[in-house]
Amino acid sequence: MDLGLKGLNALVTGGTKGIGRRAADMFAQEGANVSVCARNADDVKTTVASLEKSGVKAFGKAIDVGDKQALEGWVHDSAKALGGVDIVVANVSALAAAEDSEASWQAQFDIDMMHTVRTVNAALPYLEKSKWPSIVIVSSVSGREVDFTSPAYGAFKAALIHYAQGLAYKLAGKMIRVNSVSPGNTYFDGGIWQNIEKNMPDLFASTLKVNPTGKFGTPAEVAAGVVFLSSPMASRISGTNLVIDGALTVA
C-alpha cells in the first residue's frame, strides 16, 4: 500500500528511541524526509545517518523540548533543512513517575503538554502551506483509564487527547488534520517498561498478566498507526484517538 508520503516532510519529537524512532524510520522508508530531536546528541547523529540511508533528506538537533526557544528553533531549522513541514508528530513524554508531587505535575505540564502546544504552534505557518498537512499527538491509554501511573501523567495524557480533538475542529477549515494515538504498555530497550522489569518485577508481571494478548506492544506496532494517520491515505480521518493496546483498556 502506497501511503502517499514520498517527498513529504515529517518532524518527530523524541525521534531517536522507541515509538518516535520507529515512526521516523517508517516515514523514511516510505520516502518522506524526516527531522528528529532528542536530548542526546550522539543518538540524534546516529539516527540522522540511519535515516539518510533510505535516500531521503534527514535533519536533527539535540535539544530539551522543555526549552521553548530551542524547540521552536528546531522546528524552524527543520523546515529550512527539509524544504517545509507537512507532518508533525509530538511524541516526547516525561517519565511516568508514580509519585503525586508538584514536581511530577510540573514535569508533565512542561514536557507532555507544552512541548506539544509549542511544536504545533511553531509548525502551523508551514503546515498551512502544505498540500497534505497533518498533526499526530502521542498520548496514552493512561489518559482514558485510571492506572498505576501518577495522577499528573494520566491527567495530561487526557488533556492531550482533548487538545487534539479541539485542534481538529479548529483547523478543519484549513484542511489540517489532527489526531491522537494512545499506546498501551510498549516495551523497548531503554524504555520505562525495561526499567520496571529490572527494578519492579512484581509490577511488570502483574501488568503483563492483565493484557489479553499476554504480551507488551512494540514500538513498531504503535508507529505503524502513527505513520498511517499522518499520511494522505488517512485524508478523511481527523479528530480521532487511535488506541493501540492489544485490547487492554475496557472503556
How does this model look, in words?
This protein is of the alpha/beta class. It contains 8 helices and 7 strands; from the N terminus they run βαβαβαβαβαβαααβ. It has helices at 18-29, 41-52, 68-82, 102-127, 151-171, 192-199, 201-210, 219-230, and strands at residues 9-13, 33-38, 58-62, 87-90, 134-138, 177-183, 241-244. A 7-stranded parallel beta sheet has the order 3-2-1-4-5-6-7, sandwiched between helices. Strand 4 (87-90), helix 4 (102-127) and strand 5 form a beta-alpha-beta unit. Helix 1 (18-29) packs across helix 8 (219-230). The longest helix has 26 residues, at 102-127. It starts with 8 loop residues before the first strand and ends in a 7-residue tail after the last strand.
